[in-house]
Amino acid sequence: MQKDQARHVTYADAGVDVDEGARAVEAIKGAVKATSRPEVIGGLGGFGSCFSMKSFKDMEDPVLVSGTDGVGTKLAIAQLLDRHDTVGEDLVAMCVDDVVPVGAEPLFFLDYVAIGKLRAEHVAEVVGGIARGCEKSGCALVGGEMAEHPGVMAPDDYDLAGFVVGVVDRPKMIGPDKVRPGDVIVGLPSSGIHSNGYSLVRKVAIEGKSVAELNEPLEELGGESIADAVLRPTTIYAGGLVAALKAGAPIHAMAHITGGGITENLNRALPANVDAVVDRGGADGPAWDVPPIIDYCVRAANLTPDEAYKTFNMGVGMSVICAPDDLDEVCEKLSDQGFAPFVMGECVEGEGKVVYR
Description:
Elements: H1 18-33, E1 40-41, E2 50-51, E3 62-70, H2 74-81, H3 87-99, E4 105-115, H4 120-137, E5 140-148, E6 158-169, E7 184-189, H5 198-206, H6 211-214, E8 217-218, E9 224-225, H7 226-231, H8 238-246, E10 251-256, E11 274-278, H9 292-301, H10 305-309, E12 316-322, H11 327-336, E13 342-349, E14 354-356
Helix pairs in contact: 1-4, 3-4, 5-9
């Protein structure tokens, strides 16, 4: 009896389409090229990405600052609504705005896209958003990875991770060691929920609603739909903040308000002997504008003020701390970069905590 011939099985038969991967790379080349900086050596296609540090040789003590992050469960909403053009900006924002609080300028960015079934047009949307985020922050998109995971992820499922490297001259680094009692806390407005708290958002604002309902304009959201409000991309502060620092803005420290809200992020900009006193206002809320979608989710979840300020950014995407005598200059230089700064509190002697009044 003859032995059965071995069955011919290709990589495509196993669920991985190499040709579609090549199409995806071609589809993103233009977007990636638009983010290039003079320091970038070569382009897409190499095994490693090269970036020259020659232009930073005049720094007294150049320090590399790195960060990595993802977008979290906001992606589940993007997948539900089949809208993938903004989550790339979220990815960049979450990374670059984590390195700028020490005064670092983001230099280059890499992404990792894991997807169940690769579709070039889908990936081009996502990476197009990443490229826009890199342009806004001034860093180059120098490489990344697209990984197709058939049998491990559902065909339409995907996840994102990002990696950024920046640089700062050590004598110009800012941070908690420069903060003193009496310093003023300045807030920069958020565009909405940004990229944190989405497990709760999905629970109270998404579940049980059809796609048509999610796309319906709501009066309580100022005529915006839930879909538009929850998928609005995260504000990217890094580019403007780096420009303000280069213009001489005398900033002592910054805090990127992400997961944990104001309560668990502003304290990261404080030394052990200083508290941040945030003016939460009275019955009408704080002295700054809170995006309607955040108020909507806070009401839907019936959160207490303490819970809300520990879950959402409450309208503050970045906090900046400076000396009271420098407040006008700092606000002027921030305004020059298109920000709308507002005073949200002050620093007092304490224990390194955020307290409210």
